[in-house]
Amino acid sequence: DAGVIQSPRHEVTEMGQEVTLRCKPISGHDYLFWYRQTMMRGLELLIYFNNNVPIDDSGMPEDRFSAKMPNASFSTLKIQPSEPRDSAVYFCASSPAGRGIGTEAFFGQGTRLTVV
Amino acid sequence: AQSVTQLGSHVSVSEGALVLLRCNYSSSVPPYLFWYVQYPNQGLQLLLKYTTGATLVKGINGFEAEFKKSETSFHLTKPSAHMSDAAEYFCAVSDEDTDKLIFGTGTRLQVFP
Q: Is there a contact between B89 and B37 (Cβ–Cβ < 8 Å)?
């Protein structure tokens, strides 16, 4: 398997524009996580899915952020409208069914978003 | 709810010296604990994990960690640092109730020649 695949790797956009980040998890993994990493706040969990269903979106900072998982092999994180403070590295990670067996998450390479 | 605390946001060692990165956890149940490494401009990569069984866990690149329940600790060590070990290291705990991975704030390791 090629691992978790994120696209694009880098995105530069102007304030107010819509941004869509994409993720393809590892085949067979039931869990998908979206994280945001900044110098100030470190690694924050934004939202996670189990079997394509959003389980916990309490980390999503504002209504400008939304995430979907239409099928087991694809997820998107959308920011509309984008603001400079959204500049960060966004990671997608996937994990096999983990409850009770402590399986780890596998991370993608991340998308570096810059909003100017 | 589970949480982890990493003591020291930056650690500097000389090449060949012992590496010790500290992690303490908070959990009301036996935790699942992880160490991840992040190299510059890369995603996070699993170094090692503790689930059950042997409390001394060996990982990749010569790293190991010991689960100490009495101290609620899971410190990461490597006997001899190499320049290529320079990276950011994250301790994490798995939240058994929600399946979330809860990360610490990270420790940046610098290795000097």
A: yes
3-class secondary-structure state, position A20 = strand
Q: Residue A98: CA atoms inside 13 Å, Cβ hemisphere, count? A: 30
Query: CA of A95, closest CA in chain B: separation in Å?
Result: 10
Kindly compute the dihedral angle of the four CA atoms of residues A108, A72, A97, B87, in this order, to the nearest 10 degrees: 0
How many beta-carbon pairs below 8 A join chains A and B?
56
pLDDT, average across residues B67-82: 95
B32: nearest CA in chain A? A102
Alpha-carbon distance of A110 to B46, in angstroms, equals: 15
Query: Residue A107 pLDDT > 60, yes or no?
Result: yes
Confidence of residue A101 (pLDDT cuts 50, 70, 90): low
CB contact under 8 A, B34 and A43: no
Choose, out of A104, A106, A111, the residue to mutate when testing the contact with B (most B CBs < 10 Å): A104
> A22: pLDDT confidence band, cut at 50, 70 and 90?
very high
Task: Identify the pLDDT of residue A99.
Answer: 54
Question: Minimal CA–CA distance to A90: which of A18, A22, A12, A16?
Answer: A22
Distance CA A103, CA B94 (A): 9
